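Researcher: I need the complex structure. Ligand is tryptophanyl-5'AMP. Inputs:
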Amino acid sequence: MARIFSGIQPSGIPTLGNYLGAIRNWVPLQDEHECLWCVVDLHAITVWQEPAALARQTREMAAVLLACGIDPARHVLFVQSHVRAHAQLAWIFNCVARLGWLNRMTQFKDKAGKDREAVSAGLYVYPNLMAADILAYHATKVPVGDDQRQHLELANDIAQKFNHDYDAAFFPPIEPLILGPAARVMSLRDGTKKMSKSDPSDQSRINLNDDADTIALKIRRAKTDADPLPSEPEGLANRPEARNLVGIYAALTSTTPSAVLAEHGGKGFGAFKPLLADLLVSVLDPIARETDRLLADPAEIDATLRAGAARARAIADPIVAETERLVGFLPPR
Ligand code: TYM
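Model: Output:
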């Protein structure tokens, strides 16, 4: 059974992008794989996180994942900082990855913006930590949204260079799983920008805890063009906002954009938007309720995460120990 790893940052309330690009696709993968699902707090602190908020958001993220159908009995749900192997392997990978590779990372360029001198060194080496997350478990499949594609290519480059430098067929190749019609959910205000937890405008995104009225309002105000929906996906070319809303609708109903357009082609957004808002509420409301129910018992969530970390350590520690041996570190003890 192939081993899967994926992670999500507890840097805010998860968005519809996180849900459709990642979490929703994770759930069915659990039927046929051994999965590790990680709340990546080490990644989150690459930008400033207020400590109390980080702790709260880490628990909330775990609750959301459980509410969406992540199964901690059959799979491993845990917090990144609870398993030291991630940081240990990341240091070794900092010494394998080349600056030239990191300089090409578009997400770093986007996040650092014009103020490159002032961002943390952690933000720069962030992809090396991601490679460590995956390779510490010898995971071979990684379900992510489209924005993580370049980071996974870098992880493969690191694995290959490590194997070459240390003359060992040790780290396996990683296959990105970029799934579904909403692998890149765009901002509701600008169809050319990714929907993001960190966008300053709350109107740009649907948060998984938005109530029905907020969802309806955000969808009503979502930027669109004046034309009706086409009957075929080709008609969405150069219409990024229309393409985004159709993709969201398709992902929520587990169909394709073609099927959505076959049914709704010819409708204007005045008719389509209320249908989309109702659909969103019907999918997100049960998740929000279940998240709240789980958060009423934080000790239970913490116990689940502790048990997950113990299982994660049991897999990662021997792999990191072997990595250290290959590198030439003396055994501790
Ligand atoms: P993060 O926390 O930004 O996002 C978590 C997951 O959600 C996906 N995603 C989106 N998908 C579609 N449309 C969007 N607008 C959108 N926004 C986010 C992301 O692609 C991701 O799958 N570096 C990662 C977390 C990570 C990780 C890993 C992932 C750390 N280590 C190892 C895989 C393997 C991140 O910041 O995700």
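Model: Summary of the prediction. The mean pLDDT is 97.
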